[in-house]
Amino acid sequence: MSHAITLIPGDGIGPEVTRAVVQVLAAAGLDATWESFSAGAAAVAEHGTTLPAPLLESIRRTKVALKGPVTTPIGEGFTSVNVGLRKALDLYANLRPVWNLPNVRSRYQGVDLVIVRENTEDLYAGLEHVVVPGVVESLKIITDAASTRIAQFAFEHARRHRRARVTSVHKANIMKLSDGLFIDCARRVAKDYPDIQYDERIVDAACMQLVMFPERFDVLLLPNLYGDIVSDLCAGLVGGLGVVPAANLGLAGVGVFEAVHGSAPDIAGQDVANPLALLLSGVLMLRHLDEDAKADHVMRAVTAVLADGSVRTRDIGGTASTTAFADEICRALDRTRP
User: Fold this and answer.
1) Which of the residues 184, 232, 296, 327 is marked catalytic?
2) Which one of 139, 179, 185, 222 is at 20 to 30 Å from 7 when CA atoms are compared?
3) 204 among known catalytic residues
């Protein structure tokens, strides 16, 4: 089957890791036509906007995109491209599976959990203003509609992947109306899934328990801000943002698959970045495209290379370049071809 896929190389190390991932996916037999577009600062220079209309039109048409990291200025400049994409395409669900990989140093073993994060509202709605000089107000938006659909997504994912439990993470002891609404929606949805256990954790207690007993968690359901923070915390349990994938999923089957780490401009162009996070996101993309056999093949190759341990990028204890790591995975694809 041939696929049209929107490609956003990003900036910093983005073009290097996306090039490596496209190489591996081609070696795995993916028949794809890639439609490449810039975003962020590069797009502003060329199109006057961070998210050019042709880019959004391409994703709406192809319904799938692979996205490298894009720099977001801190405290000034343009708003997050990631947030802009999620709003423009109503990518309401952020999915981040987190599990241990062979020979990737970690303080924990046996971690196998899934973060389901609401992606469109909460404090990330970006509704803030100056009340008086020295006082800024940011609005936390929680709605029944968005909370219900993300809860349904979490329970459906749990059922489809034979997960046992969904844990809703909140701060409803303090924010009784907003976070209270979020867990009320989760409780209502849970009643429709009697085969899935449901429980709740206050966010600060959940963070403590995650760093003490991460193996006890299964699927975590969170509002936007807590989901952003907790998903990075969970990545730290298994080796960092360089080894975990992410998907942003919306209605009508639209999905944007991305590396969640930064653009690392300090090492851009040096051929030393680890493409693994984006490659694992590419595996999620393959499954989204119903290319499960190719996804399984890539995972066998990745597992074999990491288990061998002789070819690893420097962030996971090796000395290999981006190119050498991608080449080795391509060779492993040949060795593990069914």
Assistant:
1) 232
2) 222
3) yes
One-letter identity of residue 131: V
pLDDT by residue (tens digit) across 273-327?
A: 999 999 999 999 999 999 999 999 999 999 999 999 999 999 999 999 999 999 9
pTM score over 0.90: yes
Q: Any bridge partners for residue 65, and if so which? A: 6, 256
Catalytic residue among 124, 218, 226, 315: 124
Examine the residue annotation and report whether 171 is marked as an active-site residue of this protein. yes
- Give one DSSP letter per residue of 240-272, joined into a string: -GGG-EEEEE-GGG-EEEEE-S---GGGTTSS-
C-alpha 49/C-alpha 251 separation (Å) is: 25
Residue in 171, 179, 218, 294 annotated catalytic: 171
Q: Is 271 a catalytic residue?
A: no
Q: Is 290 a catalytic residue?
A: no
Active site residue 184: no
Judged by DSSP in three states, 102 sits in: coil
**Residue of 11, 179, 228, 315 with catalytic role:** 228
Distances (CA, A) of 135 to 33, 74, 126, 131: 50, 19, 16, 6
Q: pLDDT, tens digit, for every residue of 54-71?
A: 999 999 999 999 999 987
CA distance 55 to 85: 10
Place of tokens 């994938």: 245
Q: Check 31, 90, 192, 204 and give the catalytic one.
A: 204
